[in-house]
UniProtKB/TrEMBL annotation:
Domain of life: Bacteria
Pfam families reported for this sequence: APH
Segments forming domain Aminoglycoside phosphotransferase: 30-268
Keyword tags: Transferase
Organism: Acrocarpospora macrocephala
Xref: PANTHER family: AMINOGLYCOSIDE PHOSPHOTRANSFERASE DOMAIN-CONTAINING PROTEIN (PTHR21310:SF15), AMINOGLYCOSIDE PHOSPHOTRANSFERASE-RELATED-RELATED (PTHR21310)
GO MF annotations in UniProt: transferase activity
Protein name, UniProt field: Phosphotransferase
Length: 328
């Protein structure tokens, strides 16, 4: 979807970037429109390879507070996940504060498959993909961190998950004020609901790597299997259950979802699903839907593309806040 955060680069600039990074020139380019924040191109190189170039937003454009250094977060995930057995595209080069574009970029090996949301699957095949995704999430959540919760690159961290999440949520609500975002409840009530339910977060004592953007567009399929998980720039250190929110965005996860079975089969879930699960999930859903509403401030999506997302996010935020009201 088009956004003010997406850079516009000429063919000469694209060629110069890959030539400087990989030592080989470009012979073709195709901009990929599916992303929401970063500009992405599939590039054909002179040596026959195809790569994906991902360029961060213009450095002078004000973003949401948590979006600081998004591509550095993504590069961190690729580095930490090396050797973990996760299906990820290979990171070929990471450029930070590049003089040519005045910002950050990543070059990744191109994938052969298609996004899950573009694939035509039978119900049984879809269940198999969900089971496989659950296993991969279990693996992702075993990647060790440094003991800090939250978004390290954005400076939104805490010594406990409760502390970090409230810092993250507070920053997002500050952004909502800054961009005068229309919301279905007042900022003060939303902040109160976050704080009065935050004790449920004390169950999480170890920071786990959470992708927090595993929607079907970020899961590539090939030959009926998951080829790769992509777009790790929104990752944070926190509660693994948060990673079940985006695959079921605008809905609810059901107890018979094959993703849960795959997660348990992969060794995940022990001690995570407790009497606080409903409240924790509602907190993460509220946080996600707030992001979808507030991010239109800096991005200024085309109304014809964004109207449906705004409506779904608003309705879903209302439901999540109602869960938090009942639990307060």
């Amino acid at each position: 979807m088009d956004s003010r955060t997406k850079r516009r680069l000429s063919a000469a600039e694209l060629d110069a970037l890959v030539l400087g990074a990989l030592g080989v020139g470009m012979v073709s380019s195709e901009e990929l429109p599916d992303g929401f924040a970063n500009a992405v191109w599939r590039l054909g190189l002179e040596d026959g390879r195809d790569v994906v170039l991902k360029v961060g937003p213009p450095p002078d454009l004000k973003l949401l507070t948590y979006e600081r250094d998004l591509l550095r977060t993504e590069a961190m995930v690729y580095d930490l996940a090396a050797g973990a057995g996760l299906p990820l595209p290979a990171l070929l080069h990471a450029g930070f504060d590049d003089a040519l574009i005045g910002g950050d970029y990543l070059i990744l090996a191109a994938l052969d498959g298609v996004p899950w949301n573009h694939a035509t699957l039978e119900p049984a095949q879809d269940r198999e993909i969900r089971f496989e995704l659950g296993r991969h999430l279990a693996t992702l959540h075993t990647i060790p961190g440094t003991g800090v919760f939250g978004y390290p690159y954005a400076g939104l961290t805490g010594g406990t998950w409760r502390e970090a999440f409230l810092v993250m949520a507070g920053a997002l609500l500050d952004d909502a004020v800054r961009y005068d975002t229309p919301l279905p409840a007042t900022i003060l009530e939303i902040a109160r609901l976050f704080h009065t339910n935050a004790a449920a977060l004390d169950e999480i004592v170890t920071p786990h790597l959470v992708h927090f953007d595993i929607w079907p567009g970020n899961v590539f399929l090939k030959d009926g299997r998951i080829e790769a998980l992509i777009d790790h720039e929104r990752a944070f250190w926190g509660d693994p259950i948060a990673d079940f929110v985006t695959p079921t965005i605008f809905g609810e996860i059901q107890g018979d979802d094959p993703m849960l079975a795959g997660y348990h089969d992969g060794g995940g879930g022990r001690g995570l699903f407790t009497h606080t699960t409903e409240v924790r999930v509602a907190l993460y859903r509220a946080y996600l839907y707030l992001i979808l509403l507030v991010e239109n401030g800096p991005r200024q999506y085309p109304e014809e593309s964004y109207a449906r997302i705004r409506g779904l996010a608003t309705e879903s935020l209302v439901r999540a806040l109602e869960v938090l009201r009942r639990a307060s």
